[in-house]
Model the fold of this input.
Amino acid sequence: MLNKLRKAMADRNGLYKLGGNVQVDEFFLGGESHGEGRRGKGTKQTNVLIGVSISNGAPTHCFMEVIKDTTAKSPKDVFVRRLDSNTKLIS
Done:
């Protein structure tokens, strides 16, 4: 049952684009790095981009997507797919 819910949510997620004021940020997802002594950029953790639509100071909708890297091209591709053209980005 849980897999059916996840699939339905994933299918529906691609139908909508966020608009208005959208706050975006990136973060790194992964387990504890043993012996590396580094955190964030330059580690083997997964880069994730998150966008949250804000209305009247409260979150209304969001997306999270794994990106290859944090250079300008990778997030831009996500923004083209996930955001309306009238969106105001807040970072």
